[in-house]
């Protein structure tokens, strides 16, 4: 599966098979104490890839090139390397048919419910991890209303309502736990 930029997901899986790391085990240098283990899942979809429960990333986005190059070389990407070098890192490379279904909530991490009031009058409740971003909320809204215009704002209900205009801000940073978010055109 090659992307428009020529990135070939098949080559990642072929390389992993050759090196015997298809399960994606990337170990740091051995340490005398019993190391703890961290597991990361990198899922390749037809429309990109996701890391753990994170958002969809594009294969042809230049910002993702260093990450993908580490994977291609069967190395642990820098963003997944633990601070404690004695920690073992296991990376599972997973291929899924079809497009990324959207947001995945990891209930083993801090999470919250957010009530969404959409411009069409629909109210729904969605669950997010604290590390999900405003961009993830927009993705959830866009996925639930395919074909709808995307030129809307998200606001936190309050007096006055606060505009959520930083897409990289996390749920925790924006203090959105158990809040009401409004879609406004």
From TrEMBL:
UniProt-listed Pfam families: SEP, UBX
Transmembrane helix as UniProt keyword: no
GO cellular component: cytosol; nucleus
Biological process terms in GO annotation: autophagosome assembly; Golgi organization; membrane fusion; nuclear membrane reassembly; proteasome-mediated ubiquitin-dependent protein catabolic process
InterPro entries xrefs: NSFL1C_SEP_dom_sf (IPR036241), SEP_domain (IPR012989), Ubiquitin-like_dom (IPR000626), Ubiquitin-like_domsf (IPR029071), UBX_dom (IPR001012)
GO molecular function: ubiquitin binding
UniProt keyword annotation of Magnesium present: no
Naturally occurring in which organism (per UniProt): Rosa chinensis
Name the record gives this protein: Putative SEP domain-containing protein
PROSITE patterns xref list: SEP, UBIQUITIN_2, UBX
Domain Ubiquitin-like: 112-185
UniProtKB keywords: Ubl conjugation pathway
Residues of the SEP domain: 37-101
Lineage top rank: taxon: Eukaryota
Domain UBX: from-to ranges: 107-184
Transmembrane segments: none
